[in-house]
Amino acid sequence: MSNYNPYEEVLRTLDMAAEMLGLSDDDYIQLKYPEREVKVSLPVKMDDGSIRVFEGYRVQHSGVRGPYKGGIRYHQNVDMDEIKALAMMMSLKCAVVDVPYGGGKGGVTVDATRLSTSEMERLTRRFATRLYPVIGPHIDIPAPDVNTNGEVMAWFMDTFSTLSGQLSPGVVTGKPVPVGGSVGRRDATGCGIMLMVREIAKKLNLNLKGARVAVQGAGNVGGTAATFLQREGCKILGLSDVSGAIYSEDGLDIEGVITFLRAKRGRTLADYSAPDVTRISNDELLSLNVDILIPAALENTITGKTAPGIKAKIIVEGANGPTTSEGDSILQQNGVTVVPDILANAGGVAVSYFEWIQNIQGVKWDEEKINERLENLMVKAFNDVWNTAQEAKTSLRMGAYMLAVDRIVTASKLRGIAY
Ligand code: GLU
């Protein structure tokens, strides 16, 4: 859809949730406006000696419930509207899983696949320098997102610490473990998605052993979710990335595929081959005959155009904003149950919270403790959303939005900043 505007999409759902909660405009109008929008220019010396200037953004949507929290993405389609939408989703997400954060998001408009590792490092250090005045362990805490990872977070943290003159591991989360990262953080989003698949399958009486699954996206979210789901006994029939998708009627060897992809930077599914594996298009992947579909790539994939072809009865949104409002109404008409992004992919920010607690307290938790706390937090959030939706006789998306908006508005009234 050419006139697709991610920010307006989120506003539409926000308005519906506020109406269902019986809120007046005054109660929640401030949520429609990010508290701060920062746009920066990033001159970077490229490997060939030339200078290029990239555009970077950081949007701090709501600080009502705590410091701003949210990832940084490097992608050619990044613009202010996208980052505003994603920042608002982070405020909602943190409220749904009840971690004491507000919402923020950042990004740089750049095709990260075309940057060398050292160009990526210089870009990241410049971005951290430009954002220095507005971020900090108790102000705004970035994390990885599309095309960024632990290595990028380590550079970011190092630059911030150098500028501030003190080691500040709590300024970003998703760091590698040796520099203050948490065990379990890298796999947390994918693990959370598996937990949400498990909970919704229980409610709908679907046996996960042998359940047929398609996953759109083979990165840290999609690839990890597919791996965890296969361990639960699911059959992953299809998996996609930027190069297209692969399909196997008997189920793909996910561990093998992911190991292959991660072995070398720049590898895609187009480079992968195995007996009984065929290539299909991204649209074909979405309409595979499966029980569960996991969109774990970018926004705007389940639309008025693609939604009618979807055969899965359960969708668990690994990506942020994969479904447009038009796509969503079609899914509802067709009786598809959607576990919405702000709940489904919240495992990442949940373990970010655990990482940050360890950083500011100077303690270390083991994997068992992280996994147990992640599971408790996600299952509680799932039940909160499920119950809200049941009581209001509405979808899980609306239930999640109602829960989140109510929590943010309550905090805002208590702080009294709205009046
Ligand atoms: N980028 C992730 C998200 O969209 C993680 C954010 C975080 O950990 O702060 O939820």
Care to describe what's here?
With 419 residues, the chain is of the alpha/beta class. It folds into two domains: 139 residues, Leucine Dehydrogenase, chain A, domain 1 (Rossmann fold), CATH 3.40.50.10860; 157 residues, Rossmann fold. Helices cover 43% and strands 17% of the residues. It has a seven-stranded mixed sheet. Strands 1-2-4-3-5 form a five-stranded mixed sheet. Helix 3 links the parallel strand 3 and strand 4. Helix 3 crosses helix 14. The longest helix is centred in the C-terminal third of the chain and has 26 residues. It starts with 5 loop residues before the first helix and ends with a helix. The mean pLDDT is 97. Glutamic acid (GLU) binds next to strand 3 and helix 12.
- Helix coverage percent: 40-55%
**Unreliable spans:** none
Spatial shape: globular
The CATH topology of the largest domain turns out to be Rossmann fold
The tally of beta strands, per DSSP, is 12
Order of helices and strands: HHEEEHEHEHHEHEEHEHEEHEHHHH
**Top CATH class of the largest domain:** Alpha Beta
Nearest-integer average pLDDT: 97
Question: So, the CATH homologous superfamily of the largest domain?
Answer: NAD(P)-binding Rossmann-like Domain
Q: What CATH architecture of the largest domain do you see? A: 3-Layer(aba) Sandwich
Strand order of the largest sheet: 9-8-7-6-10-11-12
